[in-house]
Amino acid sequence: MNKIDVINNFKTKYINNMKLYSDYNDSLFNVIEFNSWKNNLINRSKSIREMFIENEKIIPEIKEVIKDLDDDSASLLVDTIKLFNKENIHDASIMIEIIDKLIAYYESKDELDYDKLIMLNTIGALEEMEFFLRMDSNTNIVNPKDKYLKVLSYKDNYDKIKTIDGRRGIFLAYYNLIGPLADLLPSERENVIKYYKEVKNFYYSDIVQDKDDDIDILSDEMIYINDTFLSNFSYYIDSPLRDEYFKLIDEMDKSDLEKNQIECINLAVKYINKKIDLEEMIESLTKLFFHYIGKGLKYNGRDSNLNKFCNASDIADVIFNLLKNNPYDEAKKYTLLPKIGYALFNYIDSIPYKDYTSFFDDICADLFEKLLPFCVTTKYKDELLTMLILRRQPITYIHSIMVNKISVAITQSILMTNRDLFNDLIELGYDNDDKIIEYISNASFYHDLGKCLTLGVINLQNRRLTNTEFQFIKMHPAKSIVLLGNDESYKEYYDVMLGHHKTYDGKGGYPLEFDNLNSKYKSAIDLISISDSIDAATDVLGRNYANGKNFYSLLDELKNESGTRYNPFMVECISNDNSLMEYLDQLTGEKRAEVYYDVYVKILNNLNK
Predict the structure, then answer these.
(1) How far is it, in rounded angstroms, from Cα 13 to Cα 169?
(2) Torsion from C-alpha of 34, 39, 45, 50, nearest 10 degrees
(3) Which helix (H) or strand (E) holds 49?
(4) φ/ψ of residue 401, rounded to 5
(5) What is d(CA 434, CA 484) in angstroms, rounded to the nearest whole number?
(6) Are 405 and 538 in contact (CB under 8 A)?
(7) Residue 477 included in any domain
(8) Is residue 285 pLDDT above 80, yes or no?
(9) pLDDT at residue 520 tops 90
(10) Domain boundary residue among 111, 132, 147?
(11) pLDDT, tens digit, 9 for 90 and up, residues 204-222
């Protein structure tokens, strides 16, 4: 095929595959009887495997095309990126690679096409921000700020930007620098005031007003910019930049802002000027919060409904920040914060999983981090973990349940035949069978929590992962600790979280810096490493990129890698227990769909309650 045919083939088939993939995932969120649901699951897996094969052919072809672009192929690829964006098709790694090649191509021209460059940089930055930064705000792999700043550099050529969409792109860049990027990168918050002053001065400059003074779309963008600048006020109440920030708020045109937003600001000003104390501030903000969230506010798909949640969430952030940075009655704090958190969660729990997935997963992780210190018991912490993290992510949740079932079954067998394998746990105080089983059960359930912060990569099962994406996957053991914030209740499980992808002999796996050989929990690490591999290698329903094996075929591999990758004594125990092998064969084979079904029904019952 020539270049144009390759691009058209990519555009048509890749978009169709992505839509079909989404439709198949959505089909699982329908409460129907088991056999029909199981057929949907099997058909989904079969179709996604076919997509995987097709995408593995399409993607290398398009990567060859972008190595040597010409005007016709570049223009068609620009239209393809526009279509991806319009159709809400997001595959950051593929799109960013194409976008970066197109940016380089158009920047090499003697006469710059500002409209194309603004569009490409804006979409590219959004993909980088929503995909990579939501998984790791500390990453140096991408920096969407660079693309947004490049867009801002084009404002000096405003009169050469031909379309209103192109000129609007400059204001979109400012919006993202002031709002979403500053949310994801706290280090960027110190620049928010500078960007706001710039965009305000630019909007009212002669160059914009002479060209676009009657264009509503730009005045709407300024309303959005004012709104997102206002929503940042929780960062500035205790900031050295406080006075400058509130001076700008005071000068702002508030005619398009909601009454309750203005009331929030008025409260903040009263608090700063010591006209109300902290307790009065918290009490007033709490009333405003529940005004927005209402009595059982549920998601209904409308922007106005979502805006109520976002406004409530902004107020909750102010409350969280004030209580974090100022002394406050502990009893009141422990009562209030969970109440606010659960109100937010009840809304989140009503959102279909296909809507705003990365946005709400990010909010859930942030909310979990804020509420965790105020959960008095481990039971409440586990409930919070399940509600906010695992239940939002069915595939990771199912994997945790499967590894839990496999680990407990193997543990029970080892305790009957070779209990000495758990001597390290016994020395740590797990000195009876029940305690050992409870520890293994909990550790296996928690082992992959870090994957919940790399969900964008985990969900990409219709093509091979890129090297960058695999680097993110390899971060998930350490991310478990980040998610739990070094909470004391979970510290006994940290070695398992960190070590379950290390090899038994310590010579392979990741993270490289973790020394599993000297861990006091080595037996648990070895056991859950085996259990993790058993589930992953036999999963033909959830892991559509893998050629699933049956349990007995996998057992041969476990034996072959005993002593290097896997604990040889544990593999031997499994091999010598016929009833255990039969159970694992059934669980990972014909019974697997039942585990999947139970989890989806549980999630759906919760959504529909």
Answers:
(1) 29
(2) -170
(3) helix 34-65
(4) -65, -40
(5) 25
(6) no
(7) yes
(8) yes
(9) yes
(10) 111
(11) 999 998 888 777 888 889 9
DSSP 241: T
Total residues found in the chain within this entry: 609
pTM of the model as a whole: 0.85
Q: Is there a contact between 455 and 506 (Cβ–Cβ < 8 Å)?
A: no
Tokens of 43: 């058909």
Tokens (6 digits) for 68: 């040597």
319: tokens are 């409350």
Does residue 280 form part of some domain?
Answer: no
Q: Which amino acid is at 9?
A: N
Whole-angstrom Cα distance, residue 15 to residue 234? Answer: 40
Q: How many helices (H) and strands (E) does the chain have?
A: 31, 0
DSSP state of 187: G
The end-to-end CA distance of the chain, in Å, is: 53
What distance in Å separates the CA atoms of residue 185 and residue 177, rounded to the nearest whole number? 10
- Closest to 451 in 3D by CA, of 513, 516, 394, 383: 394
Contact by Cβ (8 Å): 358, 308: no
Asked if residue 337 belongs to a domain, the reply is: no
Whether residue 375 is contained in a domain is answered as no
Provide the b/e sequence for 261-273 (b: ≥16 CB within 10 Å): beebbebbbebbe
In DSSP notation, 100-140 reads HHHHHHHHTSSS--HHHHHHHHHHHHHHIIIIIIHH-TT-S
For the cut 60, the answer to whether the pLDDT of residue 544 exceeds it is no
H-only helix segments in 273-419: 278-293, 303-325, 330-348, 357-371, 378-385, 394-417
Structure tokens at 478: 């350490």
Side chain identity at residue 107, one-letter code: E
End-of-domain residue from the set 111, 145, 179: 111
17 lies in which domain range?
1-111
Structure-block tokens of residue 491: 């510290």
Across 342-411, where does the E strand assignment appear? none
The alpha carbon of 440 is separated from its chain's Cα centroid by a whole number of angstroms, namely 27
Nearest CA-CA partner of 534 in 593, 574, 590:
574
| CATH code, domain with 575 | 1.10.3210.10
Q: In which band, very low, low, confident or very high, does the pLDDT at 64 lie, cut at 50, 70 and 90?
A: very high
- Count: domains in the chain: 2
Residue recorded with tokens 């959004």: 126
Rg (CA), the chain: 27
Structure tokens at 344: 């937010």
